[in-house]
Amino acid sequence: GYSINTLTLFGMVLAIGLLVDDAIVVVENVERVMREDKLPPREATEKSMREITGALVGIALVLSAVFLPMAFFGGSTGVIYRQFSITVVSSMVLSVVLALTLAPALCATLLKSTHEEQTDKGLLGKFNRGYNRLQEKYADKVGGVIHRPTRYLLLYGLLLIATAVMYLRL
């Protein structure tokens, strides 16, 4: 079975994922605004935070509404899940606070403008060229799948049937 320590550890893993996720959302949105609007980091951070603050707070409220009631369960279930609930909710609140304060400050000071001169020399330039080629090929393949959905849905159905047949043979 599961022990209290295992549930607390699971809560920590989930909480760390949430903590990192909020910061990633902030950094990626700032980078997108810098690239699309060709803004310097500070202005891009301000615009980005106006766009995503509501979403970050909303996600925190929804997750709190899901996990906070677990802290008030009665009996042995409540004792076991209380640690889990408190771990997830407290780390999620901390995550949102950091995503709304520290992450934007770091973005505004550490990110470099994307429209400045970029290097295509050396190992980094070679990596960037290879990555861009791979990204273009991937976009072409995804476009092909989107334009021919029937073919790929049939292929998916065949794979599903083959999986079911192999499962039944076990």
UniProtKB/TrEMBL annotation:
GO CC list: plasma membrane
Transmembrane segments: 6-30, 51-72, 84-111, 152-168
InterPro entries: Acrflvin-R
Gene Ontology molecular functions: xenobiotic transmembrane transporter activity
Keyword line: Membrane, Transmembrane, Transmembrane helix
Pfam families according to UniProt: ACR_tran
Name by which UniProt lists this protein: Multidrug efflux RND transporter permease subunit
Keyword Transmembrane helix: yes
Membrane listed as a keyword: yes
Taxonomy, superkingdom: Bacteria
